[in-house]
Every structure is written in C-alpha cells, then in structure tokens.
Design goal:
The chain is an alpha/beta fold. It has helices spanning 15-22, 26-32, 72-80, 102-110, 125-129, 185-208, 214-219; strands spanning 4-6, 38-39, 43-44, 57-66, 85-90, 98-100, 115-122, 135-140, 151-153, 157-159, 162-164, 169-173, 176-180.
C-alpha cells in the first residue's frame, strides 16, 4: 500500500523563460491559450503571493498524484524536488483531509521550491499566508493527512480540470493557476506579452476618454422590448 511510483523527471526550465513568464499575468496567458488552460477552483491561500513582490509564481511542474487524504508521496516529492520546481499535487479535489500545512510549506521554501499547487485541501491557512512560499489549494481542512500511500511522482495529473504533464510550466497569481504545455511555451509567452501591451494601451485610452467601443454595436443584436406608445 505504501508504494510510491517514480517516473523519469523532466528537464529544468531556461531562466529567461521563467523570468518572462513572471512578468505577465495569468489572465493574459490564459487568453493566449484559448482560455482553456486554467485550473478552475484552485486559488491562492491568503496573502501567500506577497513574497514574490508583485511577480507571478513560475516554475516547472513536478507532478504528484496521491490517494485522497494521504501525503506520503508529497513528502517524497519534497525531498526529490529541484530548486524552481512547482509541486503540482493531484489529490482528486477531496477536501476532507488536508494534504499539507505550515511545516511542509516551510520545508518546501528551504528547498528552493517555487510554489505548491494542491487539488485538495491544506491547513494552517494563517501561517501559510504569511510564509515565504506561494501556495494554491482547492480548500481548507484542519483534519490532517495519512501517510500510507500509494502515490506517483512525475506522472500525468489533473488539477482543477486541467491535465498537467511533468515539466509543463505553471504560472500562478492572485487570479489563480494556468498550465502552459511545455511545447507551447514560447508561443504562449509571445502572445501573452502582446496582450499585456494591448491592455496597457486600452487603459490609457480609458483614462483619456478615447476607448473605442464601436465594436459592440457591430456585434450585438439589440432587441428593444416594450409597448409602443
């Protein structure tokens, strides 16, 4: 029962790719990937993004699949993780038992892990919020985890309805988590940077009162309802 299956790990990300992703938003990346790559319902724990000084959490996915309510494989993954990895933990979305808490999050920070994403529950919300590591979860529970396995590391997982392969790029900010397939990294980056630039121009237009809204009447078929007088 306590078996943890270990697949071959992915290669680390190029630092330039990480830096570029950290300067764009999850929303812009989501838009660049047809708005289909977001992990729904997996949200940042409190203020745990504050340690990033306004930049997004970015890292290579180290995938972990575990039995709901059990964290044996997660403990093993913490010891195997490389600096810059984001642990992506598929706990089947169950919220009965927390998969990790303050101590594991603090240990992950000392290992240089870039963040934790849990499709399941965590605990110690207040201390995680004020800690050194961004943590995302589907919910909270004070009930602790079991440690009997089984589990799997570096395999295929699902978080918030999105499939994640080991080595995919994980980006998180206050809006949530987006998964970038590694093969589409540069394509998504270029598109996201263009979106950020376009939105900056639109903000300037809004502030100057010159935002072009003509497209609405060109698209919307407005039907007026009411009695004629």
């Amino acid at each position: 029962m306590n078996q943890v299956r270990l697949h071959t790990p992915s290669k680390p990300l190029d630092r330039d790719v990480v830096d570029r992703f950290s300067r764009v938003t999850v929303s812009s990346i989501s838009d660049s990937l047809e708005r289909m790559a977001g992990a729904v319902g997996v949200n940042v724990v409190g203020n745990s993004l504050s340690a990033l000084n306004g930049r997004a959490m970015v890292g290579s996915a180290m995938t972990v699949r575990t039995r709901p309510g059990d964290n044996l494989a997660v403990h093993k993954a913490l010891d195997l993780a490389e600096p810059g990895d984001v642990l992506v933990i598929d706990a089947r979305g169950e919220l009965v038992n927390a998969i990790l808490g303050e101590l594991m999050a603090e240990y992950a920070a000392t290992r240089g892990i870039a963040g934790l994403v849990v499709d399941g529950a965590v605990r110690d919300r207040e201390s995680i919020s004020s800690g050194q590591l961004p943590v995302f979860s589907k919910g909270f529970s004070h009930l602790g985890p079991y440690k009997s396995g089984p589990g799997e590391i570096h395999g295929t997982v699902t978080i918030g309805g999105v499939t994640v392969q080991d080595g995919d790029i994980i980006v998180g900010d206050a809006d949530g988590v987006v998964v970038v397939p590694r093969a589409r990294a540069l394509e998504a980056l270029d598109a996201a940077e263009r979106i950020v630039e376009s939105e900056a121009h639109q903000q300037q237009a809004i502030r100057s009162g010159s935002w072009d809204r003509s497209w609405i009447d060109a698209v919307a078929q407005v039907v007026y309802i009411g009695e004629e007088t």
